[in-house]
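Translate sequence into structure tokens.
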Amino acid sequence: MDINALIDKYFDGETTVAEERQLREMLADPSYDNNAADEARATMAAIDAMASKAQHSPNTWKQSLRESQLRPTLRRQSAAFWSHLARAAAVAAVIIVGALAIFKPAPDCVAYAYGHRVDSPELALQFMMSDLEAVGAAQDAVQSQIAADFSAIANALDNE
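Result follows.
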């Protein structure tokens, strides 16, 4: 069986004794070098340390039984902990990015007129009004030229 499938099965608390033994043998091999294998090694070592401590302490048989029943629960809790931690980190990242997007400083008002940077909104408005007046005057000149051209065409057609 694939080591990643065994690790997932182990963290879900669904491995048999034989599968857990196979997983331990695979994890003892240094060629399995990835995050999932490292996490499984650390978790299994922690669980073994807790189980060993429980066996050497003067507990009653009921307490030992209770602690041995915690092994699958601890595996599930470890996987759930990392899952919850990843979700919390994702939510925190979204909140931070959203806050940075909302509360970024407003850009300065800048215009360029006649090749020069204009920082003053009043001066930029004056340049704009001046340009609009020039456009209006040009429009008047174009309309009068068009009227003169049509008038000349009408006269030429009348003379024929």
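Note: The chain has five helices and two strands.
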